[in-house]
Amino acid sequence: MRQAWSGWTADTIWSSVRRTEHLQSRLFAARTPRRSQPGRQPRPLFHLSETPPAGTPGYFVALTFDDGPDPQWTPPLLEVLRRHQACATFFVVGERVRQYPEIAQRIVLAGHALGNHTMRHPRSFAGLPPNRIREEIQHAQDAVIRATGQAPRLFRAPAGNWSRTVLRLADEAGLQPVDWSIDVKDWHAPPARHIFDAMLRSRPGDIVLCHDGGGDRSATITAVQAALPALRGRGLAFTTLKRGFPHSRLDATLAPGLPSVLSR
Ligand SMILES: [Zn+2]
Question: 60 CA to middle of ligand 1, Å?
């Protein structure tokens, strides 16, 4: 059922407040990395510099693709990433994983990371009752495990619709909430050039939001194909996101089999 905008609860307002606070705090994120504190509220990760993984050079960006797997768009995107030896993180929708398990497997086999993006991608996610939120997370988790044998460690709320309850329930499921610092806005189907320009604004540490499902993604694929060599030409490299423990540690790891990226 479609959720109405009566979903403006304290939680969703809090979500907007957090976003504003984040925009302010990002200015200082690189100089003031967060430390793990017992009892600290779980919060989404917006930028790699917030949890710099030990020993990881600071020139990585994390490309993320949401709303797949999609039989039309995910395979050609995987091919573009393979050709350019780039790795990424796919926030997949459980129902689509159940429908296309072999594409989810291909994502994993290619060395990319999978994150949980709920079972049905509900609108106004944070406005759902807690038991529905828990169910959406758990069912997607089960679908990915069944398809790939791997349990996601990352979670992204549909449309970044976070709330205290969403964060707590993701945390209870053992998932690191992940947001983004660059939105290429491919969800409203702009020309490939606009998506490319947005991707080229990436700086070290950025988490870039793109989509490989939920609509015609031909422009996204064209843009990614052009952006990968352009970003690499600026000295950037690509990393997957991988949840580590304890909470505040997020390991940025290279996909296996990418020595040419490592040696840059
Ligand atoms: Zn989504």
Answer: 23
Ligand 1 ion: nearby residues, β-carbon < 5 Å: 66-67, 158
Residues annotated catalytic, as ranges: 66, 211
Structure tokens at 218: 């031909």
Task: For 164-183, write each residue's pLDDT tens digit.
Answer: 999 999 999 999 999 999 99
Domains of the chain: 43-253 (3.20.20.370)
Using one digit for the tens of pLDDT, what is the confidence trace for 106-117?
A: 999 999 999 999
Tokens 């990393």 found at: 239
| pLDDT tens, position by position, 75-90 | 999 999 999 999 999 9
Answer yes or no: are the C-beta atoms of 154 and 115 closer than 8 Å: yes
CA of 262 to the centre of ligand 1 (A): 30
All residues at 6 or more sequence positions from 129 whose CB lies less than 8 Å from its CB, including other chains? none
Whole-number Cα distances in Å, 246 to 1, 128, 138, 147, 249: 37, 28, 21, 27, 6
Residue among 209, 104, 91, 116 nearest 166 (CA): 116
pTM of the model: 0.78
Q: What pLDDT does 41 receive?
A: 74
Q: Ligand 1 centre from 152 Cα, in Å?
A: 16
